[in-house]
């Protein structure tokens, strides 16, 4: 071996099997760590644990066995390790590989105890053995050899197979096929008799050839029916049944075997549709296509006459993969994360990981689907890993997949707000709203306005509080944004476009729309659990029944429903905030109150498509206000009452209001007035086509501020009936001024003067 190359191809060391930060080291340092007392106690403890584990297996205590297996896994994961085959920078996945060292790892496992010493001697005496030591279990031998001539991604598998075949022939035992992963780690442990041979001879790529592919049998075409008789027995022995809890696993394994047994894909698809009529066609066919995409596996296994379990167990290609091996393969193939906003697992294919596929270079995150999970399982099978699909699904549902909140990650990555610049005000300045005679909130009139905000302060203030509420609702599941920011105006005024641009581009996928569908569905409920902003388009065409459902949705804290095709109900927090757009000014039809709405009439909006919206500033300001304990982003009852007059201009005219304002007024000063009941008021207008009710009239009288008097026999309102001349000459504005809304009426218990 070239000594200069030996020095320049040092391995990467990791503090544990779960560590992802490589540290440079040297072969001499690793050898010293193996042979000195650094890992003596940990190695002895681990081997003693294995001995106890064997005793527990003999007792059949499943619960205790699982606990000890978990402890075993944790002990091994805590040990330091190294990667010999690749040069790494910044991580340990294929995305971090900067080159190949030329060193190949061989794992000789499953050695009969009576042959262990002899095989260890053979390996140490072989001139190609560079590093040899006994593994942490005490039952295996780890070998590192070197290859000259250039090891690359393209030829790595061929080189690995060539070196491993050499040691398989030398030792007369099967070699563990899991080591073919170039980023596979080797656990450091104690072996005082380990061997380091710097002068070891190198293999050379010039004499290497790929393994011959198994010849495909052509004598008899295997039918799906014939193959299934064998496959069904195999799956039964593996404990896999065609049951609701394992449909996906059963079907995937079934067609993985039909591909290997040489059943034509068309025959397999036709047979599957006949055999599994309860399995959705749109899910079944993609699974078959995914399994048959492994063209190199097609017709590579002869159809056996029977299932020979013993032979299968002795076949190293079917050796069951451990959790550690599954994690290591996945870490080099795909990235996974649990999106805490959508409650879905997302995956990203690592570029150049085991594949030359062009889509691997895109490296975009996407939701985990059955197709992706099945493809991952097939890739693991293709690389010699015997993995049960249920076990893979369990692993992906564990803490192996780290949690990720897209909004939280975006906010934490922003520069801090300077505490002065009003970026939200700049966003509000894009919206030019019509002045309202009712100010929703009292503002400090002495405060100067800069040239960026010609928009009334009330819209900027409400937009600011709504946006902070949006952040709070998404980050804290105890908070629900219960108000709907609404823009009403002519078509083509960029109302919907503005709503689309509230979220920054990186979070735009969490914006969705709901158009008028005349009903609220279960899907609408689930959109509240996985989106940040929901835009209710054409709100003015939404029927009253749907508006009433919407009021309940806006205040709902959790969604407890069963998803489509799901088995159990889920309990998910409401994280979305609502906005709405429409064309007609008067769209609110609920006569019981409209406190959930924050509507504004739009004159014009600056085009969001052309504007340079300062998203970083907007959201750093919003996040800072959310964290400021002195900033209140919710509305008090007093403020809601102040908003009442502003919201009234968007309410559909109410006949009972108009009639009462036209024909009655409140007494002024010492004026006595008369006593009348709600029934008498309805009777006065009984000849009209309007549908009046005691509830509507009573609510209108109360909201208009008329005084109510309770007597033993009825409730009366104190009113002054307008004269005919007053009715004919009274303007609506004068009527409202005479009866200002919002004033709480007084109630008296008294005897009436009749």
UniProtKB/TrEMBL annotation:
Residues 461-650 form the Virulence-associated protein E-like domain. Residues 1-20, 733-754 are annotated as: Disordered. Pfam families: BT4734-like_N (PF08800), VapE-like_dom (PF05272). Residues 76-195 form the BT4734-like N-terminal domain. This is Virulence-associated protein E. It comes from Phocaeicola vulgatus.
């Amino acid at each position: 071996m070239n000594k200069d190359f030996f020095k320049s191809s040092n391995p990467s060391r990791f503090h544990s099997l779960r560590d992802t930060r490589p540290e440079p080291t040297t072969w001499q340092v690793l050898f010293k760590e193996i042979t000195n007392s650094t890992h003596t106690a940990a190695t002895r403890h681990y081997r003693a644990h294995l001995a106890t584990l064997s005793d527990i297996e003999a007792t059949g205590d499943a619960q205790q066995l699982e606990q000890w297996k978990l402890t075993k896994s944790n002990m091994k994961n805590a040990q330091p390790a190294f990667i010999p085959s690749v040069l790494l920078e910044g991580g340990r996945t294929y995305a971090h590989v900067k080159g190949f060292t030329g060193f190949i790892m061989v794992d000789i496992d499953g050695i009969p105890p009576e042959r262990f010493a002899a095989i260890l001697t053979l390996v140490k005496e072989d001139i190609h053995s560079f590093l040899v030591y006994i593994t942490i279990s005490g039952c295996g031998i780890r070998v590192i050899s070197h290859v000259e001539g250039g090891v690359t991604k393209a030829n790595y598998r061929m080189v690995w197979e060539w070196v491993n075949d050499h040691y398989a022939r030398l030792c007369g035992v099967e070699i563990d096929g899991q080591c073919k992963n170039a980023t596979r780690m080797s656990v450091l442990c104690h072996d005082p008799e380990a061997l380091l041979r710097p002068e070891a001879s190198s293999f050379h790529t010039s004499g290497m050839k790929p393994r011959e592919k198994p010849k495909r049998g052509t004598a008899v075409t295997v039918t799906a029916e014939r193959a299934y008789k064998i496959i069904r027995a195999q799956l039964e022995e593996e404990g896999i049944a065609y049951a609701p809890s394992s449909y996906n696993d059963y079907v995937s394994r079934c067609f993985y075997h039909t591909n290997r047994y040489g059943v034509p894909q068309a025959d397999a698809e036709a047979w599957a549709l006949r055999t599994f009529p309860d399995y959705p066609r749109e899910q079944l066919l993609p699974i078959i296509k995914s399994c048959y995409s492994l063209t190199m596996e097609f017709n590579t296994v002869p159809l056996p006459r029977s299932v020979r379990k013993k032979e299968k167990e002795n076949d190293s290609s079917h050796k069951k993969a451990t959790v550690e091996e599954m994690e290591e393969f996945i870490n080099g193939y795909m990235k996974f994360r649990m999106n805490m906003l959508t409650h879905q697992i997302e995956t990203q294919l690592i570029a150049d990981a085991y594949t030359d596929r062009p889509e691997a270079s895109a490296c975009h995150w996407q939701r985990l689907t059955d197709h992706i999970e099945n493809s991952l399982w097939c890739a693991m099978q293709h690389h010699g890993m015997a993995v049960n699909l249920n076990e893979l699904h369990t692993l992906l549902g564990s803490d192996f997949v780290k949690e990720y909140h897209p909004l939280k990650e975006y906010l934490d990555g922003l520069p801090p707000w300077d505490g002065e610049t009003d970026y939200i005000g700049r966003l509000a300045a894009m919206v030019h709203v019509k002045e309202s005679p009712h100010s929703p909130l009292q503002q400090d009139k002495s405060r100067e306005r800069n040239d960026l905000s010609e928009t009334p302060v009330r819209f900027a203030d409400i937009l600011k509080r709504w946006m902070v509420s949006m952040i709070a609702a998404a980050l804290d599941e105890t908070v629900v944004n219960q108000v709907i920011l609404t823009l009403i105006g002519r078509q083509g005024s960029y109302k919907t476009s503005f709503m689309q641009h509230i979220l920054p581009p990186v979070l735009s996928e969490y914006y969705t729309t709901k158009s008028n569908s005349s009903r609220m569905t279960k899907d609408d409920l689930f959109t509240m659990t996985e989106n940040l902003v929901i835009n209710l388009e054409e709100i003015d065409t939404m029927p009253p029944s749907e508006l009433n459902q919407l009021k309940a949705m806006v205040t709902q804290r959790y969604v407890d429903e069963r998803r489509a095709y799901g088995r159990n109900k889920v309990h998910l927090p409401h994280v979305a905030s609502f906005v709405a757009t429409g064309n007609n000014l008067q769209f609110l039809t609920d006569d019981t109150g409209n406190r959930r709405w924050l509507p504004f009439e739009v004159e014009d909006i600056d085009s969001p498509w052309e504007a340079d919206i300062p998203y970083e500033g907007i959201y750093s300001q919003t996040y800072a206000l959310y964290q400021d304990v002195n900033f209140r982003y919710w509305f008090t009852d007093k403020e809601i009452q102040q908003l009442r007059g502003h919201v009234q201009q968007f309410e559909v005219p109410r006949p009972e209001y108009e009639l009462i304002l036209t024909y009655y007024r409140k007494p002024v000063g010492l004026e006595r007035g008369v006593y009348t009941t709600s029934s008498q008021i309805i009777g006065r207008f009984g000849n009209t086509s309007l549908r009046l009710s005691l509830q509507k009239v009573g609510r209108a009288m109360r909201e208009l501020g008329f005084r109510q008097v309770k007597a033993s026999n009825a409730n009366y309102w104190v009113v002054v009936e307008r004269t005919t001349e007053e009715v004919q000459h009274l303007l609506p504005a004068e009527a409202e001024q005479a009866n200002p809304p919002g004033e709480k009426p007084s109630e008296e218990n008294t005897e009436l003067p009749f």
